[in-house]
Amino acid sequence: MNHHVPLLPAASRLAAPAPALDSPMAKLDADMRFVLETHARMRSVPLELTSPRLARRQPDLEAAMGRILERSTARPSRDTVSCERISVPGAGGDLRALFVRPNNTASGPLPIIVWLHDGLFVSSDATPSETVPRMLAQRCGAIVVAPGYRQAPEHPFPAAHEDALAVWKWLMHAAAPLGGDKHLVALAGEGSGANLALNVALDGAKATGVSPKHLMMVSPVAQAVHEPDAPTGSWREARPLGTATVRWALRQLLQDVKDSEDPRINLVGRKDYKTLPETTLLLAEIDPLLGEGKALAAAIARSGASIETSIYDGVSHGFFALAAVVNKAMFAQAQATSRLNRSFRERRQSLPLKA
């Protein structure tokens, strides 16, 4: 794990004007605020003010973390995983993916985690970042497959959902050759990727007869009728994600107003969650998706499925990958990997002993 990097002196953090006291941004922890200030200095533009093509070239919060780490004297820990770029079949052709495997693992098939990245279905790179996949592989002793998926508006809904389901179907055949156990697979994702992970947890089991052992979601996109968990005006200045950004992304994704009620988008309105595996839901306090995340948690709980929900205060959307510089991200990653590891252990302990 990377060492946590102390913030720069306080004077360097006071250059930007303080947000209004009634703004959600006033609640930011100091380390999260510093990441966002660094991000702003990298000439990032709110996505709603640019085009999808240009949005994909914007620096993200992980780029801001990298800028901070450049100034640090802390040494990163020795790499204990190997990472390669592969192609996996999607519904509309091959997709780029990361394949991460822990080094020096015990013999026998390993658990597998499918990590589905964020980007609000629009703004991500074709190849996912390595930060979270490497962390998951290292802490869980698991193979991690992190596929890209087709982006809107060039490929509107339901292209990304079809790609994610296609990856699950492929993995059920490819798990053993990859050195993994198809009966020991977890689904995980953030933002739009969390939406995809939940859909695959439901539809993938129906399509293949194999259910995931755990579902881990961070700040999911859970509905298209956007109802922030705060007075609407207060989320306008939220960064990196405000209400205008969410609505911009949904306009790129959905071609027809009817799509907003599709159960793959309107997760809050679904009632078929009883078959979900054990679920972990992590939410950020300063995120216009907080309200729909809480509503989704309630819907899953009402169905009788097992869910653990945590709201991390003082951090914004996109915090999860920032453990090298944001304390709450370290706690969130520890919670996520602890829950994943417990699910994997329970599966192994339930298997009959070999003669």
TrEMBL record:
Family matches, as InterPro entries: AB_hydrolase_3 (IPR013094), AB_hydrolase_fold (IPR029058), GDXG_lipolytic_enzyme (IPR050300)
Keywords from the named record: Hydrolase
Molecular-function GO term, any one: hydrolase activity
Domain Alpha/beta hydrolase fold-3: 113-320
UniProt xrefs under SUPFAM superfamilies: alpha/beta-Hydrolases (SSF53474)
Name the record gives this protein: Alpha/beta hydrolase fold-3 domain-containing protein
